[in-house]
Amino acid sequence: MTIVGPDTLVMEKTGPVQVTIGTPAPFALDVHNTGSGRAWNLVVRDLLPNVAGGGTCDVAPSQITARVFREDRTTPVSDPLAEGSDFAATFVGEPECSLSIAMLSAAASVSPYERLLITYETHLDPDSEDAVALTNVAGATEWFGTDGSDPQ
User: What is the reported pLDDT for 45?
Assistant: First the structure.
């Protein structure tokens, strides 16, 4: 049996350094396929912060978008992906506090040196305290792949 690519998926999460209660905060998840094979049916999971002093767990993230781009992050490979047919977003509140985004269609597959860019907005919980440091972790938790010689 041969296990094939993608060898590596690299994910970077970006967002504002400071967030204000009542103001939407935009975040981006950038999944870069640096491997040799196409990746499909990716699942990205974002563990949203939820600590005693605050968090982003009271309201589900909104304005979720997804699209595949070339490595330059500006040249689209796919049309904007449609929630419900190309991807599914699932928010789980307390105590887990997570956002999972599962790619569902062939349009959401990521070939070598392409990027899946996911964006969303979230809000601070109304009871968040001033100057509380919030940290969250996100990553690609599942995907399927094939070697670069597969024509599909």
Answer: 96
